[in-house]
Structures are given as structure tokens and as C-alpha cells.
Amino acid sequence: MVICLVYFFSFLIFSMVMFICSLFLVMKDFSVIVEIEMLSLNSSSIVMTLLFDWMSLLFSSFVLFISSMVIFYSMEYMSGDLSMNRFIMLVVMFVFSMLLLIISPNLISILLGWDGLGLVSYCLVIYYQNVKSYNAGMLTALTNRLGDVAFLISIAWMMNYGSWNYVYYLEVMKSSSEMGMITCLMLIAAITKSAQIPFSSWLPAAMAAPTPVSSLVHSSTLVTAGVYLLIRFNLSMSENLMLILLFISSLTMFMAGLGASFEYDLKKVIALSTLSQLGLMLSILSMGGYILAFYHLLTHALFKALLFMCAGCMIHNLGNCQDIRFMGGIIKRMPLTCMIFIVCNVSLCGLPFMSGFYSKDLILEVVSMGVLNIYIYLIYFISTGLTVAYTIRLIYYVVSGEFNYFSFHMISELGWVMLKGMMGIVMFVVFMGSLLSWVMISSPYFICLPILLKMMTLIVTLFGAWIGYEVSKFAYGYMVKSMKFYNSSFFWGNMWNMIYLSTFGVNYYPLLLGEKVYSSLDQGWSEFYGSQNLYFSISKNSSFFQFIHKNNLKIFMILVVMWLMILLIMF
Question: Domain extents for the chain?
Fold first, then answer.
């Protein structure tokens, strides 16, 4: 408990300091680059470079603030755990890796933070040490390794410039083929870390981790690392790369919204909503709005962290049950938790005037004002409608209706430590959107649209809410029993079969091929022509020679007798 409080207060104080420093840097409009010489040998020197600008300090303050609340929340959530100190140290390592990634303008030091996130996330996903956790951890680690390989190759390519401080070359070397290759590799690294198509399946699987870890991972650390990296590399991205990223991220946003509408696991619904919001951030980033992407990244971090904390509180009280069909009517027993849960959900939907509204509505209006194509416009607004639909469905199943859990239960809000941890963030979920719009956006976006397009976001939100309510109400009866609906929901709910493609698709056939190769080559022809056949022939010959050696006198006498018989017959 003492170690939790120490880290809680330390992170909170550092968060406040960094936020004030970022405000100062925004007002003065300058950034600080610190170079620390680690080692100097003859004429070579190894230098650690740190970049402190308004973006890195603001994001760091959010990461530290959310981490402090999560650590405070974990004091009660993980209170029954026997290795609490190990858990807290893993979380702290996770946060430090993210901070190293945020403040580094150098690819080598970013790789330290990047690989630190990958390694510690594996340790946290397998924390409960069961078969499901091990499978999820392996899927998470191996998918992220693909991005790490791209990162390492980009470090090798960066040697052409004589330095790994990429911030100096982004704009100057934009047209060079080396920078194009490096940016392409960075894009691959970012979409693996941010779980875009076709690397999406590890994100719901990573829900095997404890809920406080999920709260941290999905709000401000692991999955947002890819988005932050692309925000940093935005100056060097070519038009073709941006179009590819736009197509991938918009499809991810749509696919995640559909998947969440058919999912029954509480944590997986929230995880898929994270995937949808990551698609939104990357798609607006690919259209050139990197400030808007960063703005939504910060507002999303707050309500998503709180959403997972509320879910953890419910799971904790329901005896570790995560199926939303067992819930219902929880508002009567946990009114404060449900109130915070609803506040986070309406902020996620972009309801005026919550923090999510300021970033999401602005993004949708910028898309409406753009002239790209009808596909992007439709997929944006359909995905927004789906977000509201699955959110209303979640609220319907969890908060309202009849209580569907066991008759004998013990559900109450006696966990004051968890509630205090949640209450620390809830005010920011309400107010931080407007506050950030004053701080970050130096000149206001002037968006002039016809009244129908201006109201389109609100219309889609209300329509999505109605669809979500009707589907949830109807799902209790006919739709669940209908096999046709079940088959379609199986396809949509499993993220377009991506879960099976990334597990059975990459496991089953290579293992089958390995078995064939093993039986026909390793245990077959290579044995016949190789060592085994050589062993048999040599042992056979040696046994023959040994037989002759042991019976040489007998053989000699037999040969003499045979020779005498031949002589008698012949003469």
C-alpha cells in the first residue's frame, strides 16, 4: 500500500508540473532539446537527446495523471493479490517506457521505449498465468514484433543520414527515397502497435490482463504509441502513404464498430470501441489534421481510462463475471459507478457538451467540409452511428432492466478507494475538452456548412441511439434464437474472422506442413539416405567382420577341408 501511495503522489505532482510547463511552452511558442553526452571515445560520442515541446509535455502530463489514478485504483482492485509489489513495478516500468517514447526525437531511444512497452505489456497480459492469458500474451507479443522489425529496419536505413535524430530531417528530406522508405516502415510499425487491419485481433485478446492495466493500455500508453509516432512523422508522409493509411484506418473504424455491436464480453466491447477511436484518429491524421488527431487522443484517453475503471468496479463486484447478459439493473445497487459509466459513454458518443464532443464533432465537421469522396464521408458517419448504437446497447444491458445475476450476491459500493480513483478523473471527462480547445488550437477552426451537414452529427448520433435501443430490446427474444442472425453475428462479432486468421491461419497450416515435412523428410528420406541408413550399413558390416574375426579358425579349417575335397575330386 505504501509503494502505491508513493507512486500515486509522485506521478500526480509530475503531471501537474508537466501540464504547467506545456502551457508555458504553448504561450511562448518554443521547444527545448536537451542533449546528454553518455560516452565519448576519441572523436565519437554517444548522446542521449530529449525533446521537450508542448506536445510531448502535454501528453506526458496526461499519461502520468491517468497512471496515478490507475495505481490508486489498483490499491483496492488488486488488494487480494499476493504479488502486489510486482504488479505496481510492472505498471511503473510500463509508464516509464511510454514517457521515454514520448520525449525522444531519436529512433534509438524511441526503440528502447517501444520495446519496453512490448515486453512489459506481455508480462502484464500473462499476469494471471492461465492458458487464456498465455495465448493472448503470445498473440500480443508476436504481432507487435512485426512492428519492431520494421522499426529496426528503419534504424538501419536512417544510417544514410549519419544521425538517428529524425526530427531534423522530416521536412528537409521529405522528397528523398530514404525518408520515404523510413516513413513507410514507421507506418507499418504504427499500425501493428495501434492494432489496425490486418493486425487487429491482438487488441481484444489483450483483455486477459487485469482491468487496471487495460485502463492504462487503452487510454494513454500502448495502443496510442503508434498514433503518437505518426503524429511526429506527419511532415514526411507522402500522399500515397496517407491514402493507404486512410483506407486501412477507416475500415478498422467501421469493422470495430460492427464487432462491438455483437460482442457480449464487457471488456471486449470497450476494447473494440478503443479500436474504433484509434481508426478515427489515424484517418483524420491521414487527411492532414494531426492537431485534431492529437486533440482526440487526449480527450479519448480520459474517458476511456474511466470507462475501464467503471467496468472493473462492476466486474469486481459481480465476482469476476464479464458477460453483459448476466448484468442488468446495476444502477439500483451501484448508482455512483453507473452514473460515471454513463457520463463516460455519452462522452464517447460525442454528446454536447462533454469532452468527447469537442474533438469528435470537430473531426466530423472537418470531414464534412473536405472534398475527398463519398466513401469516406459515409464510413465516418456510419461508424459514428455504430459507436452510439453499441454504447446504448451496453448501457441497456448493464444499467437498465432486470437484474440477471445469481440470487445470492453481494453487490455494493463499499469500495471507496476505487470510487475515489474514478472521481479523480470524472470532472476532467466533463471539462477537459473545452479547456484543451482553448490551449491547443491557437486559431479557431472556422467551419461553414449548410444547416443539414452541420446537424448531421447530431442526427446520426440520435439515429444510432435509436437503432442501439431497438436492437437491444429485440435481441432478448427472436434475434438470439434465429440461426440466420447467429451466423451473421458470428462473422461480424469476430472482426470479419480476423481472430481466426491471425491464430488458426498462422498456426494450423504451418504446423500441418511441419508435420508432413517431419514425417516424410526428417523421419523419411533423410533417414534413409542420411545418418540412420549409414548407421545400419556400418553396424551390419561390422557385425559381419566381427563374426569372421571370432570364427576365423573354423573358417580356415572349413576352407582347408573344401580345398582337399576339390583336389580329390579333380585328381
Answer: 1-237, 302-496, 502-529, 537-571
